């Protein structure tokens, strides 16, 4: 019986990828060696890195004026790194606060220089995306988070601005088409739609760099990694390899357009049930609902939580506990999740309704 | 026919570990899920992290006054991180320059504050470890690199000092017993004796922290990671998991004492052949020769390189090319390498001798 993996991240990846990785752990590229014991300077791994970068470029149609990097440290390291690279001593950064991760990103910039929160939905426990704010044209940059895993909200339309636009897309990159040319910097921890934890994707406009005027530690300088093709030091070999395989899978399955279609179908199915079923209520504002993470509460937790948890355990639904700051349930439906897993969850919700 | 993996890093790990990891890629902990698709907050992964930390503590007999962390970014990120945490605005850091990595470590401290090189073997292409220097008692710290992968040198006896002692042990940690209590900070990229690239081990004395008085970006502050048990953000799940399995293997095979014995046996075998065989010369000073990486040159490269390269290719010797800054050959013999691989390399060296 299949386990349905609704984990928020690290999360489900394609089954085909697991199989290929499993074999490569014993014999990679017919070398008689494991993929994790070869040099990152070997022909075999250089080919992996090159293909991973090429697939990112192809799938997101990235202009040549941008660099694609695979780094370490997750989005959390990017919070500091982007501030070192984009926030000048006398400049100002502007942030949209749509959740815990936005807020942490802001904190790093504020620690280093002048940063301000333009708009926030914190008082509503981040259950919507603020839209009424104005970005100053001469800001060093404007920062936003495209998808808020914890609260199940997602930016559907990015703001227009003259200021450099920077976005943390950790939890929805590759889930939909993207006009990269609108952004100066896009970054994403790999562990949702891209690959396993341990790699961080960075897409950066080359001519936006080198302007902060600050001393930047070598490893926090994007130009360090650009000059060495993400191999300034040993890259996270395994995570880059699995990301490359996941990108191949994405391409073979129709790319981001097809992924978007499947993701919208899955999300519509689940949100329709949340709205229909009298036992549940969604937490996010309808117009900002994320296609990646759907958050919902039992209307009567005291009466039904035990029963519902038993039903989902029975159906092998894994990883649907809500984040402690929202409570209830959270179903993460990343690219690699099949429709049948969402159907299995719907069956559980209907079973609860029928039972009482 | 077995491939003999002499790669400098990423490098050989135990075969038993590859097998177990390969299975866990499909079904981990009987969850019906891959080890790379489960939440880092799940019971299963928390148990992995706990066991990895406990095994590091046990194998190196680490006092309770130290913390053990698994971070990202490699030793290169530590170069900056340690400076932020240990180098005060008015203080001074002192460095021993024993190679390219020492030198990069120094550069990060010098970029941030006052740092100086106490002694260097650069003019001799780093073929020995300087021993004639005096560390100032009131330095913020003294930094050294225990093993120099590129040049095949290794510190056999660490200096006595009143100043905090910091050491990059990336390429020889777990290869020999270690008195952790002499150090304030030890760090190591995982990708030699510990696990795959993507994790960085940090062992830090708790009460040595919090003294630099600097603004430290959140992710570069050791206390951030201590307060969250290496889970401030998503850890490199896979690399920590494989490290834990490698530590189990180390323990089952007699721990660091037994590893040291095997490593010395392998190294003695190879260095004896280098010294005996008239076709080869070792590059490192005899008293500083590394048990991990043996560097040697052909005495007549023009006449014998082609033949020797053909012989080693025939025997499936992999990864013995020397680093470009030294040339010749480098045989890396980390913990997981069996004696028979060293014997295979010796056979090649003898075959060359017999051929000409």
Structure notes:
Two copies of one chain form a homodimer. Chain A is of the alpha/beta class. Chain A is 36% helix and 16% strand. Chain A is built from nine helices and 14 strands. A seven-stranded mixed β-sheet of chain A has the order 2-10-9-8-5-3-4, with helices on both faces. The first copy, chain A, has a three-stranded antiparallel β-sheet with strand order 11-12-14. In chain A, strands 1-13 form a two-stranded parallel ribbon. The two termini of chain A are 26 Å apart. The model of chain A has no long low-confidence stretch (mean pLDDT 97).
Outline of the structure:
Two copies of one chain form a homodimer. The first copy, chain A, has 356 residues and is of the alpha/beta class. Chain A has two domains: 4-11 and 255-355, Aspartate Aminotransferase, domain 1, CATH 3.90.1150; 15-252, 3-Layer(aba) Sandwich (Aspartate Aminotransferase, domain 2), CATH 3.40.640.
